[in-house]
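Reviewers of the previous submission asked for a worked example of the structure-prediction workflow described in the proposal, so we include one complete record here. The input consisted solely of the amino acid sequence. No template or homolog information was supplied to the procedure at any stage.
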Amino acid sequence: MTQSINSVGKVYLVGAGPGDPGLFTLKGKTLLEMADVVVYDALVSEPILAMINPRAERVNAGKRRGRHSLPQQETTQILIEKAQEHAIVVRLKGGDPFVFGRGGEEMMDLQAANVPVEIVPGITSGIAAPAYCGIPLTHRGYSSSATFVTGHESVGKYRPHVNWQAIAQGSETLVIYMGVHNLPQIIPQLIEGGLTPETPIALVRWGTRPDQEELLSTLGSVAAEIEATGFSAPAIAIIGKVVELHPQYI
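From that input alone, the workflow returned the following structure tokens.
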């Protein structure tokens, strides 16, 4: 259980967006310029890190598959400790803090420790990455619904149970976060749920950044193409007829 403390400062859970600094919010930029401490993730882009107050203390808490810099509990403890010493503590997270970003967990731990916390939303990659490659998630002629789901198996006690077969029939556009590694296991379940092997899929790596990469395929072919090309995370997968609106889709 997190110990209650008397905080002198406030923790801001700030969404850095998907990478393009032009998509970062004005409120987030202002907080970085005023921050005493910034605890940041691995997916935050260098142009956004460059906005941090040069006098601020920086703590790299980045998490990448197989390379966890700090355990989640340790990251939260750092935030609690820094809030006892400084007025403005920024927890800078890629995308949006509340969309597969563990922001909810950190908020609850901070509240339990009696640390004031404020959420500053960011643009999530599941919206931005498709937009930057010309794929609308909804379109009157293609899709009237979109579902966001994680394809990543969590470590620890909680393992998300995603009913992929139900999701296959529950939405016309699927956006899968952190799922490239597990696509060979996910795709058969989607097909069993009713999607055809010819269903279009787009993978977008480093969406909105200068080195953005895209892979256009179908459910039946994408696993082989990933292996052949070496396409890897971090990437978003978009599945559905809307992928056909990509300018280069054949």
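Helices lie at 26-34, 46-49, 72-83, 103-112, 125-132, 164-170, 183-192, 222-229. We consider this example representative of the routine output the project will generate in years two and three.
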